[in-house]
Design goal:
Keywords: Cytoplasm, DNA-binding, Iron, Metal-binding, Repressor, Transcription, Transcription regulation, Zinc
Number of helices: 4
Pfam families: FUR
Number of domains: 1
Helix content: 25-40%
Structural class: alpha+beta
Shape: globular
Organism: Tabrizicola piscis
GO biological process, one term: regulation of secondary metabolite biosynthetic process
Subcellular location: Cytoplasm
CATH architecture: Orthogonal Bundle
Order of helices and strands: HHEHHEEEEE
Strand content: 15-25%
Amino acid sequence: MHLTASDTGTERGATWLKAGGLRPTRQRLALAALLVGDGQNRHVTAESLYALSSSAGEKVSLATVYNTLRAFCDAGLMNEVVVDGSKSYFDTRTDDHPHFYWEDSHRLTDASAEELEIASLPQAPEGMAISRVDVVIRLRKA
């Protein structure tokens, strides 16, 4: 049996969902295939994933896309990166790494962590633990 690119993407999506302990509903499978089906990491907004799913012929509401992205984050499959306190990007790459935010095109891309040095962090308030540090480097034309 020969797998098509679509079959491979669906298979990768199903494996990804299983790794997060999520039930592979039709909508989750469709969105997972769009996010990780080609093996590349993605930075998406709910709106951009909704547009991508619509252009792929998937019948998924924007509310479902939001809820599914939250479920993917809760399962540890993605990280949410908030820019400007209101714009959320969802990243399929979950290791610690910084990001570039391109102000002119409103894109988020990975930045190299090799030159990034964080010497120390403030102590967390009593009863709290630092879960993650997001570094977003904003870029604009010089």
